[in-house]
Specification:
2 domains; Rossmann fold; alpha/beta; formyl-coa transferase, domain 3
Length: 385
């Protein structure tokens, strides 16, 4: 029973950050129903779960939102919901007849969460885009990469999930808390550009005091410029990571690498020496395997960790002891986070197929049985049964 048990959410099916937000809410105990297109139902649901782990923990209903009866059914679901989340381009929900005005008219306490890349307004609002574009415009991508090289796009965690899905989840929960006291819902405009910009807040602070040079990619403290904050290749081709920023941690690094008496390494924060010291540090770490460096540095205050692939991370003793990864429907995946001492989150079910729970969801959410039968017969709703 997670901390959001009792909260009811309607998720309009989409990709990326919207489903990630819905997964987070469902992981925390919310009753989230995913509304898929009726056309996505291809027959009876297979015996195996849907492959997309982002869809875990919630039931799936299929509606035809181009059919007036499908639209009316969605609005009936909205009437019973605490929140709705959607990730269409601006104006799509309005054209379908299920925009904020229609939904809030049916349920004035509804929190209407909107997820886009550019936001609901502005010159870019109606243009297509992806994570790489949003973090570019946010002023984030320009600063990711190594000295003398171009920007290196990270996996789409920064825009889609960090600056997008997590901010949508945060915004929805904030809206729910406010609605509990005011009795009024509202629209939450979540843009990946906005969220990604917020993730850069610390670097704006460092820039303001001259501690981050925006014109030198890969030359600053936290962007691989420093020899003590980087990843290094080992003799076996694997990698380790260092983050020995504080003086006491740097001293431990010097001690365990045998460099404590090397005068060249004494001036830790002399950035003019960093390129030379990085070369020497790289040469040093190439003298041993990753496992050998783990034997020396794991569980110390060096601020050290091996760079692990996903499969290695799932098998690492630390993650195994904490159950950081779990098995749901035969698929290894990250466990819900964060952790709660009393209202413990859990994954209620594996990912569902389109329309797998249409009949049960409509009945559970108050649609009369004869109307459910009529919707299924007309095609306004479809069930994978």
């Amino acid at each position: 029973m997670g901390p959001l048990t009792g909260v009811k959410v309607v998720e309009i099916a989409g990709i990326g950050p919207g489903p990630f937000c819905a997964m987070m809410l469902a992981d925390m105990g919310a009753d989230v129903i995913r509304v898929d297109r009726a056309g996505a139902v291809r027959g009876p649901a297979p015996d195996t779960p849907h492959f997309d782990v982002l869809q875990r923990g919630r039931r799936n209903v299929a509606l035809d939102l181009k059919n007036p009866d499908g639209v009316a059914t969605l609005l009936d679901l909205v009437e019973s919901a605490d929140a709705l989340i959607e990730g269409f381009r601006p104006g799509v929900m309005e054209r379908l007849g299920v925009g904020p005005d229609e939904c809030l008219a049916r349920n004035p306490k509804l929190v209407f969460g909107r997820m886009t890349g550019w936001g609901q307004d502005g010159p870019y609002a109606r243009a297509a885009g992806h994570d790489i574009n949003y973090i570019s415009l946010a002023g984030a991508l320009a600063h990711m990469g190594r000295r003398g090289e171009g920007p290196v796009p990270p996996l789409n965690m920064v825009g889609d999930f960090g600056g997008g899905g997590m901010f949508l989840a945060f915004g929805v929960v904030c809206g729910l808390v406010e609605a509990a006291s005011s009795g009024q819902g509202q629209v939450v405009d979540t843009a990946m550009v906005d969220g990604s910009a917020v993730l850069m807040t610390m670097f704006w602070a460092l820039r303001s005091i001259g501690m981050f040079d925006e014109n030198v990619r890969g030359g600053n403290l936290l962007d691989t410029g420093a020899h003590f904050y980087d990843v290094y290749e080992c003799s076996d081709g694997e990698y380790i990571s260092l983050g020995s920023i504080e003086p006491q941690f740097y001293a431990e690094l010097m001690h365990l690498t045998g460099l404590a008496d090397d005068a060249d390494f004494a001036a830790q924060m002399d950035s003019s020496r960093w390129p030379e010291l990085k070369e020497r540090t790289a040469d040093l770490f190439r003298t041993k395997t990753r496992d050998e460096w783990c034997e020396i540095m794991e569980h110390t205050d060096v601020c050290f960790a091996p760079v692990l692939r996903m499969s290695e991370a799932a098998a690492h003793p630390h993650n195994v002891e904490r159950n950081t990864f779990i098995d749901v429907g035969g698929v290894t995946q990250p466990a819900p986070a964060p952790r709660f001492s009393r209202t413990v989150p859990e994954v209620s079910q594996p990912p569902a197929h389109a329309g797998q729970h249409t009949r049960d969801v409509l009945l559970d959410w108050g649609i009369p049985a004869d109307r459910v039968d009529s919707l299924l017969e007309s095609g306004a709703a479809r069930a994978a049964e």
